[in-house]
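User: Round two. Same drill as before: sequence, then structure, for each protein.

Assistant: Same drill it is. First protein:
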Amino acid sequence: MYKVFFKDRTLFLTDALEQDLTQNFDALHKYTSHHELQQFIETFEQNEHLMVGYVYGRNKDFLLEALKKCYHFITAAGGLVINPNNEYLIIHRLGVYDLPKGKTEAGETFRKTALREVEEECGLSDLAIRHPLLSTFHTYRQNGVFYLKETAWFFMDYFGFEVPTPQSEENITKAEWMKKEELTKVYKSTYPSILEVFNKAGLSL
């Protein structure tokens, strides 16, 4: 099953509907054609009272590829970084807590993008990827264009002791290290996709 975020709303793509369907949902669509999927997505986008929706079919990977064709699809990567003091790297951007991430450049792997973005957005080097976490998906609208973004997330180690420096040109106002017990305030003011990253890393809410 794939989970796609529309701000605070969620669309699930599944090929195991009986297993994945919850009791509380607001929209359900069986994939039959791209045209009908496009119509369903437009309805889901326009009706913000629809909080949870499902698209189901024979193959969830096919459904994801079909959904990508309904949007301008872009890719990004980022990292959940831990330092030698067991503190986590958190940034503050556009009024909410976030994790460092950014769009992939031509020819870049997700791993290279993630390392570069953490270095650029927080002024840190001496980083190493420990392992992949997951990919998150979210939609947004910019200048009249509807985007679907996939962000690949990695768990990283930072081996230095530098104080992070926020990249102001990326609207980052703060970059700081937080202990696990301090993350509660982050959970209360961040994006649903970022909560997915913490969950996958075993940092319970």
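Second protein:
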Amino acid sequence: MANVLFLLFYMLCLSACAVIALAEYILYGFGLYGMAREAGIGGEWMAFVPYARRYLQGKLGGPITLKGKTMKKPGLWMILLPFAMGVAAGLLAGLALALAVAGTLFHENAMIMIPMASVAIFADMIIFLLLFAGMAAKGGLQALINYQIFSRYCQGNVLVLHIIFSTMLPLYEAAVFFYYRRKPFVGDLHKDA
């Protein structure tokens, strides 16, 4: 009976997560579509394609300037950053696995086993730090893009709260995009960004 209750609870949680993910997808898609249409940047259909929607979000935000350097296509970086993290983590994980296998093949010789095991553990720690740094970089870039987008619709404390909450709360970014989808787009946006 306990197993059935656990399974029921698990299925209920899984269903709730699926409903939240679907709601986020729909709100974010329609919100981004409306904002892109109001801005007149073209390619509104990308709002409903999983990776292309991040590119469209970056295109809607426009170029980002920090400390005199300009990132002209932040949407492209929103797509490439997760792929680069995955490739680097995959290569390091392959190295750690190869070292672990090599260590088990030479298990008679303790002098070979100890360095290989420590290198594998070191590679695992680097993978963790790499993924953490990549997630932080992606979150920071997304916050900068959202800052530029939301600053065209609101100012002051509301803008700061939108940035903080869209970073921390599920569905918040999608709900704000959906809310601002029909508001007039204020500001100059480069067509080639």
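The longest helix spans residues 110-150.

User: Perfect.
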